[in-house]
């Protein structure tokens, strides 16, 4: 039985107007080669955004995107520019799957990331945007290549559709709790990129128990997070087999093993996996290396609830021979639903959000813009209170990698890497045995997926 969905109309905030986007637009075909033709007869029926009262619906399929960000970055700017246009967010009941939502509702605009792109492709919900891009004269050259190239890579050789427009670059940083550093007399991370060896040294000094309270020095999102520092795929694109038995992956497994071996890191109850809750609610994590979007929006919501503490940002670390590079920049993207009755208007909304003024709002509220405009880096974080006084320019130290090609089965086999983390942390396996076990589990799961999902 499908779960009941709740459609929430979000409050409109006062913001500065966005610059005007493209002219009359058009309808596009399903995500297959070619897209909309955009002939003269079609153009006569196109409606310019804002000419008539219109409600568009919006659905977030993955990633951290709290209501405070949806209002500030999307709903409010569009309402300010186009008073006749309202963007409503579809908020499904807990545990409702994307597939259930998309089979029940037809959101006009779809927000997604590498954590959902491949699954949404299988639903057929993505419109091929090439026709709309052409009709609106949307300037694709403004988009950062590491983001747009990733989007193009998803369908390369399979119709070459453009299924999404990058919305922002979700980069990685090092968050640290200054109170914990002060408590144990450990110097703060520097404003230059540090090596993993240097960060591990800090983590060892911060991992301890004080007055019965456990503190853990470092959280890194484990194998999947660490692998993003080298841009590593989980499944080989050509063979469809596990891609873990390589020198690069072995380096990642060995680093994660060192982290788990820090005295006191694994709790007496065998807890070994630490994340956002422990950092910003429990405040027992000294350092957390993770996505910007995973933390900034939720910490702003927490601040609005009256919870604050003393933290800051440093550049994400890397191996000594990889300094100057940071982790992969995850693409958060906006798409038009192939079944929408308002494809043209939905694309105009996306184009508006990708305008310089729209991206300026993103930057000032803690998201890294998708467009090439170095001036926006100077505006980063200026309008979001939780970033006041933080060393936000450390976000831009180092060059992020392009996100690796996410295999159609990758989302389904990621749990095998969590299992591998447990094998390293608490099950007593060495690196070689863990890689063998994880590879076998992935290969077995891939064979099952070929039957249940179909050939990639």
TrEMBL record:
Keywords: Signal, Transport. Pfam families: SBP_bac_1 (PF01547). Residues 1-19 form the signal peptide. It comes from the Bacteria. Belongs to the bacterial solute-binding protein 1 family. This is ABC transporter substrate-binding protein.
